[in-house]
Design brief:
eleven-stranded mixed beta sheet
């Protein structure tokens, strides 16, 4: 069974310009963010981590080519593209880096001259530049050059795009190499290798609207913004054959709402005795203003909050009355926080202790969209409409033993995964915190993920169980409704999960740990029993289960004692059978 590649990696290590990294991350996140997780990676990641099988596209942005040569694993990147069906997008310095050789010689400063081969060699020729004068680190001097781009959907068209020190490419078209776009003088501006690599001289990722440029340059670039975006979309969709969301004819960026300035209000539904209209909570990161006006907008650090009873309707897409009708718990879900869009349900609770302290155990925070959804480690959670995104607040009683309190954050992700997999038997658990399903062609696809954080105030622990589950959104991977072969509402799914989770957590508390019954049910739903995996040192072990602390238990294939692997102390690529101990 294959696993869909979910990551788009933007290199941000030594040599990469901070401006270019941020512009590339922003633009590609908004173009591809509905289908992929766009993340920054450093040289250590590309040299040491098993990134290839999960990465759909590697982006090397503008900056300096020589540090790329010194720090990056050239042969590994070549193998990723040529033999592992990987994709590469090189911009400016990343374009020079992608050619066979380079001649970089700014006419205003010959001390910056770079000549030589030994690059990645995707373009079987030389990358030359720049066109005109160049000063490192002065992106505000960015110019505008005219290019012609021949799109499969719109035909040939010309327009002005940002230019700052990038190459033109010398060499002829071949079976594997082709010119996609030319500068006004006919020199190659954008070239391709197979359907795997784009090398780009101009800075198509630059958004002039957020740059301090000369007025005439800025005006010219803004006039051709739609052309720039259409060109980028054509490169990603037609040449690299990536999944790209439909865009408007004006070239609007419609990815995750990561840059918005205002948000809709938050509604708190149920009995919150410590809160009242007129209350203002100024917290560590955010402020919460309890209003009576549904038209009061929130910002990313000041939230307008309205209190409602369960019988009162709210204008949110998530309908709490429908959810409550399906809920059969004693506490979980009877108090709701609902909004059509927030930054992150998990972060709003984790980073704002005063606000969170007012919330009773069992409170659930649901958002239709998240602009900064969080995943495990460096990952983000891709927020699409139709995805169920929530955080449950579970307070561990102060009289619970210290050992039990310390185990709760580790086991909470297992309890949540078990609750979801039992509520929907088409799902299985990928340790430690993911939910997978199998589509009609046998592909193993991620349907959801769980993120757990804990807060300790005095002797009381607060566990935040966050979950993202693709319910009705087929992007970026597959949807629960497709596995079920029927439509199902977010309200129904959340109610079924909480009905299951409350009873599982109750058993965990009453049995003072992961009981034999819970263990048996968990192993029945996970994907790893008896799996053979390789450690970073080359030794092989067989997975046998979890130990009493919630660590992964493994036995060497050839002799030796069983070992325990901390879910937060190791890097796991379980689908490839690899575990790397973090140092």
């Amino acid at each position: 069974m294959s696993v869909r590649r979910m990551n788009v990696c933007v290199y941000s290590g030594r040599g990469a310009s901070a401006v270019c990294v941020n512009q590339a991350s922003r633009t590609f996140r908004r173009l591809l963010g509905a289908q992929y997780d766009v993340m920054k990676v450093d040289a250590a990641t590309l040299n040491q981590e098993p990134w290839e099988d999960s990465t759909a596209l590697l982006i090397i942005p503008g900056g300096r080519d020589i540090p790329y040569m010194e720090d990056l694993p050239l042969e590994r990147i070549r193998k990723y593209v040529q033999f592992q069906k990987g994709k590469y997008f090189g911009i400016c310095a990343g374009g020079y880096f992608g050619a066979s050789s380079i001649l970089f010689d700014p006419p205003n400063d010959h001390s910056l001259k770079v000549v030589g081969g030994g690059r990645l060699g995707f373009w079987k020729g030389i990358a030359k530049g720049p066109i005109g004068d160049f000063v490192y680190g002065s992106e505000s001097l960015c110019g505008a050059l005219q290019v012609t781009f021949d799109s499969a959907s719109t035909g040939a068209e010309s327009g002005f795009v940002p230019y700052f020190g990038g190459p033109w490419f010398e060499g002829s078209n071949s079976v594997e190499n082709r010119v996609i776009s030319t500068y006004e003088d006919g020199r190659a501006a954008i070239v391709a290798y197979r359907h795997s690599v784009i090398l780009c001289g101009p800075h198509l990722e630059f958004d002039a609207s957020i740059m301090d440029l000369k007025p005439d340059i800025k005006e010219k670039l803004l006039a051709f913004k739609s052309f720039r975006i259409r060109t980028l979309l054509g490169l990603l969709r037609d040449h690299l054959q990536l999944d790209v969301a439909d865009q408007t004819s004006q070239g609007a960026l419609i990815g995750p709402p990561g840059d918005q300035e205002s948000y809709p209000p938050i509604f708190m539904i149920g009995n919150f005795p410590e809160l009242a209209q007129g209350t203002i909570i100024k917290d560590s990161v955010d402020s919460f203003v309890f209003s009576s006006n549904e038209n009061d907008a929130s910002t990313s650090d000041q939230w307008s909050v309205l209190l409602r009873t369960p019988s009162q309707e709210t204008p949110t897409r998530f309908k709490h009355t429908k959810f409550l009708d399906r809920l059969s718990t004693s506490t979980f879900g009877h108090r709701l926080i609902v909004s059509d869009c927030v930054t992150s349900t998990q972060n709003l609770l984790k980073l704002n202790g005063k606000f969170t302290a007012t919330l009773p155990s069992g409170t659930v925070f649901v958002a239709d969209l998240q602009s900064q959804g969080k995943g495990r480690g460096k990952n983000s959670w891709i927020s699409n409409r139709g995805c169920l995104q929530f955080t449950l607040l579970w307070r561990v009683r102060a009289d619970t033993s210290e050992a039990m309190r310390s185990n709760c954050p580790v086991f909470a992700q297992y309890l949540a995964a078990l609750a979801i997999a039992e509520a929907f038997p088409v799902l299985n658990i990928k340790w430690p915190n993911d939910l997978y399903g199998v589509n009609e062609t046998g592909d193993l696809l991620k349907i959801g993920g769980i993120l757990v954080n804990s807060l300790v105030v005095g002797s009381e622990a607060t566990i935040l169980i966050g979950c993202g589950l693709n319910v009705n959104n087929s992007q970026p991977t597959f949807a629960l409704s497709q596995l079920l072969e029927e439509s199902i509402s977010l309200e129904t799914v959340l109610a079924k999960i909480l009905n299951s989770l409350e009873s599982i957590i109750q058993e965990f508390v009453e049995s003072k740990g992961f009981s034999e019954n819970l263990s048996s049910r968990y192993y029945n739903k996970w994907l790893h029993s008896g799996s053979k995996v390789s450690l970073a040192d080359g030794s092989e072990v067989r997975i046998v289960g979890l130990d009493s602390s919630g660590y992964l238990r493994a036995c060497p294939i050839i002799g030796g004692e069983a070992i325990s692997l901390n879910p937060d102390g190791n890097s796991f690529d379980m689908m490839r059978g690899l575990i790397k101990v973090k140092r």
